[in-house]
Amino acid sequence: MAMACTTERRSSSTTPTPNKWTDELPADLLELIVKKLAWNFVDIIRFKAVCSSWNRAARSYTSAPYHTQLPPQYPWLKLFTQRDKQQYPWPSHDHHSWCFFSLADNNVYKMDWDTSQGFGFHDRAVSFLGSSHGWLVVRENKPPRGSSIHKVVLSSDPSRNNNFVVVHGRGGDNAAAWTDLGGYPWYGNSDIVFHNNGHLFALWIDHSIKVWDFGDTCNDNIPTKIMNFQPSMDLNVIGGGSMTKDERWFVDSMGHLLLVGRESSENDSRSGAVEFYIYKLNIAAKTWEKVECLPDCALFLGRNQPAMSLSTQELPRLKENSIYEWKLQKDCDYNFDIHVEVYNLETKLVKPYYTTRVPKSASCSPPVWIVPSAFGPIREKIVLSTWLR
């Protein structure tokens, strides 16, 4: 079962204050203003909070069928829960709000949810399983607990298409995973991604590929397995040297399917050595082709969440040919610091981007990357809650 929850800044969740001159502005002028602000999701929320007519104008613009290509948004990082506003400078938290770090302006925003919508749990009762199509995926931690669910992907944006499929992988440390849709057992699965209009590509730990067609599942049909092959690969570049940890992601990047690997030492720390390797899947030739650089592209990686690929031409504040990731570092008092770092694929150097302290009282759910979506005819739909037990 899945449900959506509105998450807005506190000011926009209250009734807009009547204001004569703002209510008298013509609708076409308001639409032009919204269009100028559409590149920043936060500005849209602020615009809606001015008055009821501005709120209607923004909702009309973002939900109109002809506005299918709103400007791409900069990613946010969902941070840990913060409860001690005296010791730490970022916005305080309660059980009804989360903080997000925005790469659009390098600011932290507190987003509140409405518990009257039935979304009444707090951070300590949930796990965050990544994001997909602008929706944050949340699992409520309620017993009895079966196999642990690690990752969730959506076939399309539920705000724009009612016919969508939710697929989740589960298993110990992502070493074994499967989908409940169709009853196919998936053993040794590494990552999953939707690609090419409803085709689910599954990457196995041996770099083999299996593909299911989910295109007709909206009519209660079982997904059809259409491909199963082992692409050839030069394995000499993987697992070499002193690196002992190997994490992998499968990502759709500008129409290509990429295998992204991260190698590090077992005691990976902020100053520890890290290496990345990237391969592109050539489906026709059934090969993995080595990728040396990613022009006009930035990748975003996180633990137990789908990787994201964003265009640096559309989002010029991002560094091209780079990989953004977050790390956790624990001090002697058992506090954690979140470090956002940028790895340059050409120079193979890591540069710090953003750091914040997480107190011991904070939620233990790891950070999550999300690209917010302004689509939605009724309300902002940031949170997708999969009530999985």
From TrEMBL:
Residue stretches making up the KIB1-4 beta-propeller domain: 125-338
One Pfam family of this chain: Beta-prop_KIB1-4
Record-linked PANTHER family: F-BOX PROTEIN KIB2-RELATED, OS07G0183000 PROTEIN-RELATED
Protein name: KIB1-4 beta-propeller domain-containing protein
